[in-house]
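Hi R.,

As promised, here are both runs. First protein below:
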Amino acid sequence: MGERIPALRAEVAALHAELPRNGLVAWTAGNVSARVPGADLLVIKSSGVSYDELTPDNMVVCDLDGNLVEGEHS
């Protein structure tokens, strides 16, 4: 699982860049997430972070109940 999370953070951050480009979101509303294979975890965009500021580092990892497991944002 150690290598999967950084790769998923990068993939989810890249996919988020496509959302405003394609007119699919407004402001900071809406997101893409990815389930971590083999774990009850997901990688998702931090709440309130604008799309033009997103990087793999500010993606967060949550459990399936929405509890923060890894990351510095809510």
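And here is the second one, sequence first, then its structure tokens:
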Amino acid sequence: MTLTPSPTPIADQRAAEAREVMPGGVSAAARLHPALGRPFLTARGCGAWIEDVDGRRYIDLETSFGATLLGHGDPRIRAATERALDLGVLCGHDSPYQAQ
């Protein structure tokens, strides 16, 4: 049995636009979704849920490849991120906050 992705007009249009400026329409090759033939484009996330650009909701079982282990929009992560932005701290450098 072959699964054919259902049409997603907004995602297909945005993917076509992205292909104009990035190879495959993605900034990292791992994001090109072979079954869809284009990137899986998300619009927002909340907790364990993500929503694609066409308004469909999914449970984020990939946790953004590990980046959202506590869920999307977790208030603790948001507060820490805002604090880091206020301090001008870059993720590529060590800081006392990493251990915390």
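A quick note on the second one: The radius of gyration is 17 Å. Let me know what you think.

Best,
J.
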